[in-house]
Fold this sequence. Notes:
By secondary structure, the chain is an alpha/beta fold. Helix content is 44%, strand content 12%. It folds into two domains: 11-35 and 281-398, Aspartate Aminotransferase, domain 1, CATH 3.90.1150.10; 44-277, Type I PLP-dependent aspartate aminotransferase-like (Major domain) (Aspartate Aminotransferase, domain 2), CATH 3.40.640.
Amino acid sequence: MTWTLARRAARLEPSTIREILKVTERPGIVSLAGGLPAAETFPVEAMAEACARVLAEQGQQALQYSASEGFGPLRDWVAAQLAGHGLRVDASQVLITTGSQQGLDLVGKVLIDPGSRVAVESPTYLGALQAFSPFEPEFHALDGDAQGPLPAALAAARGARFAYLLPNYQNPSGRCLGADRRLALVEAAAAAGLPLVEDNPYGDLWFDAPPPPPLASWAGDAAVYLGSFSKVLAPGLRLGYLAAPKALFPKLLQAKQAADLHTPGFNQRLAYEVVRDGFLERHVPTIRARYKAQRDAMRAALERHLPAGCRWQLPAGGMFFWIELPAGLDAAALLPRAVAAGVAYVPGAPFYAQTPRRDTLRLSFVTVTPERIEAGVALLGGVLAEALRDPAALSEAAA
């Protein structure tokens, strides 16, 4: 028997990050690769108490099938949170998803036809490229500068189905768009008739000051907004959400019904039981403080150990540093040398929809202690310095 694969199956690719994480499981490897939140931040005790209450008070309902839209009180809570950020949505526009990754998949199913254009940042979130690719879009890479995508680039993307943007502490670059750039992008998108899909998994992880208002707070019905509980509560719950214009919401709901009927009702009730009394307002600042200290440790280590010619910006939040290497170095080609030396990172090329830059890499600082950050960056610096001294390595990387 021969299985005939659908054309879209050829566009499914393994996650570069997940494959690298397999390598990092080896003993002794300092992994600066994974985009995982720190497990030490997971509120295990609060979860245990909430779990007991849900089972005792709502056990039968929590273990039954539930509404495709999501648990009503949790949708109300999300809508109230979004209103606090300036979004004009009500609970009827909120869809609880099985992680924000499912939100990306639903957007792709509903909005992308084979050959239609989708505008993305350069670089952009690898998981979004994976989610959209099976629907056979033509990706249009938006030109940008150190401040983010250029408004003129959105004008040049006229006719695309939507522009996918991550304004807050972007994965992978760590970049946060300023208020003026955000407003200019929204105005440029409106003039071009270009809808926006705004992805915001990291917006609560700011270190010194919160980010500017979301794009969707200005764009209104011209935007879909995606959020997640993974970075502030626990990724194992697989809880995310999207807020969509009323005209678009029914099709996104139907796509979800076809995918999994509903996000696990027990998990939704558990999360609501934890967050409903303001828990996140007390809990998230502890995550910020931890991550800021680790960010600072990585900044100091980068300054001490990376060779001249390496460039980076200090992230004001989130989980990542984005490193541009000296000309001629290929991060993917050098990864085996780094792993052999005892450190792992994510090469930057897979984060580009078009014309990948091989002289880039992503480092995560949130799952590693400051001491391990120091050791890992020192090892990385040694690998890069050796490559710069070795013409054969440069030739290999350039090939």
